[in-house]
Here is the input.
Amino acid sequence: QVQLVESGGGLVQPGGSLRLSCAASGGIFRIYAMGWYRQAPGKQRDLVATITSSGNTNYTGSVKGRFTISRDNAKNTVYLQMNSLKPEDTAVYYCNADVRLLSGRSDYWGQGTQVTVSS
Here is the structure.
């Protein structure tokens, strides 16, 4: 069974930085795109950034220039470096991966990690 385990969330002051990690494991044959999404209280889950297996990236407009997504294919891990954090970045951040197993291909989600930006 595929598991995505996130880490790195926490409380940070405005202007600060955090680095999120998400490691995938469990019968994986190949991982295609990986990404980060976030969900603030009372709002829908929105895309933050995605990265393909070849390293092509895509960001939502509000994080461009502040966040950087990267991945280590050998470790099946995706990262999100978040700089110049703002209160409006406060949300639960979820990792997503498009995974091929021997039995087929499916989308998987992590359990979420809380990021709170506050003074």
Q: What stands out?
A: The first strand starts at residue 3 and ends at 7.
